[in-house]
Amino acid sequence: MKVQLHATPEAFTELAPEWNRLLDPARSDTLFLTLDWQRVWWKHLGRGDLMIFSLREDDGTLRGIAPLFLEEDNGERLLRLVGSHEVVDYLDMLIAPGHEDAVCHALLDHLLAWSPAPWDCIDLQNIPEYSPTRAAIHRIVASRLLPLTVTERRQEVCPIITLPGDYEHYLEELDKKQRHELRRKRRKAEGVGVEWYRTGPEHPIEAESADFLRLMELSTDAKAQFLTMPGHLDFLREMATVQAEAGHLEILFLLVEGQKVASLFQFAYGDRILLYNSGIDVSQYSSLSTGIVLLTYGIEDAIQRGYRYYDFLRGDEIYKFRMGAQETHIYNLSLRR
Question: Cα(268)–Cα(307) distance, rounded to whole angstroms?
């Protein structure tokens, strides 16, 4: 298998016609691996040296893409996946189904052959538990075909709700106390005339995303600080535009007396809704539990539109499990000579 290094951002353009074709809906397809996401992340948050590897058969057929970059961290030279790891939830290599072992073996063999080696560790973060790449790497290392050791640690929890066919069925699956609380909060909010809506093609995304970012900033000091970090605000603004144009971005707003007081920033992708972030004006209407009420509308809306999963992404906040989510995990794989 031929391995080619693409060391400039032009790689995203060069590989564009083939990139998304490698995403396998049954196993490794996620929004965070799409060309648009990876390209925008590198533009605003990329660091170190870009090292995207394409792997092809002798006839030129593309079998894999390893979107990596090289950076120094605490004196170690690390090869990491583009997207690592602050604003991305799932990462992986892109590999055609059935070619995982061949692609991983060829890539690792190529990286080991560099002399002198520019890297100390291949540090793969945010790898889903079901990743075929994760399984292939363990098989290759266990076979002792390459002089590598792999250390794996469970990195974070990603709670996910498996959605039933209707909202009442969803409520019935919850703990009795939680079911009662959600119904009570909805009745209280609806008693004062709350409204909500989900953005679509008819909404100007620049204005809607600006309203979301305002609410996000008002939510917590940590979120406000996050938005001041270099590249974060520009990244979110461009990603909102790009994903809205692709038909993936949806922003939900809860309104009280016509005023936006809570918001959800989510993506509709494949068979699931990905809840990426939220914003709440905590100074107003706190007695209405505006964030939870909007979340119930969002879950009900996802069910009505036929989505199979409501994915809370990274984080083990207790409210996610009270809403019926179950644990899944992402892993960190460190490969050393």
Answer: 9
